[in-house]
Amino acid sequence: TEQATAMQLKTDFVANASHELRTPLASIKAAAETLHEVGGEDPQIRERLIAMIASNAERLEELSRDLLDLSSLESPEAACVIERVDLTAIAEDLHELFAEPCTTRQITLEFDLDDRLSTTWTDARLVRLVLRNLLDNAVKFADTGSVVRVRGSVSPGAGDAPGTTRLGATLEVIDQGIGIPIAQQQRIFERFFQADEARTGSPARRGTGLGLAIVKHALRALGGTIEVESVWQQGTTMTVDLPGCVEAQ
């Protein structure tokens, strides 16, 4: 039944969340115990253990943030707050947010937004959630030394809302990276779905498995859509259409 299916989904979600939380906690506990026992005797061991604790604490922080974001979006009380929003200002904020990881991996982050997107009518928090999570994936999976681009345009064909004078906005997040295998593209918006090791590779590329689920729920609340275009070993383009959020000139 529908109720049984919902209960099973909830049970699976709790089980997955518990597993994802236990993994970094166990690593922190093991590193702390080792540090207490032998870490003080060798500076190199001490530094390695401290780095391990810091890395897993960061993962816990990321997972907690994503769980809270997803929980708020799935709540029956969740609602859009439509207000005047400057998408170019959100872009500038995200450029600063991702400056450090981009510098570390020698990635150039470029934004090219239509000036008309400085005045839109949408939910700033939800749009920021969408772009932040898409950029997080793009930067994480982009090749070292490559370019990640965010393009924003206005078009009558980009999800314009019937019966209004407002046009739609199209946002594209483009990376030159490893890409997503075709067989996995239908599942990437599932909660806790992780691509295979050929894509995730190093631990630095492993996320929480919640980012694209957050994107899906945020866009559902906004009445928007997302399309995935990806070629293995070449890169990925995520195209978001937001309806009726830009005033027609």
UniProtKB/TrEMBL annotation:
What the entry lists under InterPro entries is as follows: HATPase_C_sf, HATPase_dom, His_kinase_dom, HisK_dim/P_dom, HisK_dim/P_sf, Sensor_HK_Regulatory, Sig_transdc_His_kin-like_C
Tell me which UniProt keywords the record has, alphabetically: Kinase, Phosphoprotein, Transferase, Two-component regulatory system
Entry's PROSITE patterns?
HIS_KIN
Checking CDD domains in the record gives: HATPase, HisKA
Residues that span the membrane, as ranges: none
Q: According to the UniProt entry, what is the EC number of this protein?
A: 2.7.13.3
**Does Kinase count among this protein's keywords?**
yes
Q: Which residues form the Histidine kinase domain?
A: 16-246
Record-level Gene Ontology MF annotations: phosphorelay sensor kinase activity
One Pfam match, by short name? HisKA
Which top EC class is given? Answer: transferase
**Coiled-coil parts of chain:** none
The reaction(s) annotated as catalysed by this protein in its Swiss-Prot or TrEMBL entry are: ATP + protein L-histidine = ADP + protein N-phospho-L-histidine
Signal peptide per UniProt: none
What is the name of this protein?
histidine kinase
Species annotation: hydrothermal vent metagenome
